[in-house]
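Retry 2 of 3 after timeout on previous attempt. Resubmitting structure tokens to design endpoint.
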């Protein structure tokens, strides 16, 4: 009993992959690639929100206080200086 020769099979090995196959013209094509495990890096850690919102909250409170002072000054101006012309009174309103 004769054993028939087999054509070389495609070979695969780890960590390097090598594929050998023949095309119809009789040439042997070889493709070799190295397999490296490249997992994506984990996303960067999020910053501590408590450390960021504290100064922002203080800034918002300070801004509200200054806005209240501005509203008080505008109201005082319009109540005290009613005798001024409309154009003179509209200038602070435009800046407001």
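Retry 2 succeeded. Sequence:
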């Amino acid at each position: 009993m004769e054993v028939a020769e087999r054509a070389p099979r495609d070979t695969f090995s780890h960590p390097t992959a090598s594929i050998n196959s023949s095309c119809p013209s009789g040439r042997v094509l070889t493709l070799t690639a190295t397999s490296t495990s490249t997992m994506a890096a984990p996303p960067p850690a999020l910053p501590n929100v408590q450390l960021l919102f504290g100064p922002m909250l203080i800034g918002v409170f300070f801004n509200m206080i200054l806005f209240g002072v501005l509203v008080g000054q505008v109201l005082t101006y319009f109540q005290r200086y009613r005798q001024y012309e409309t154009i003179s009174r509209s200038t602070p309103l435009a800046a407001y």
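Attempt log closed. The first strand starts at residue 16 and ends at 22.
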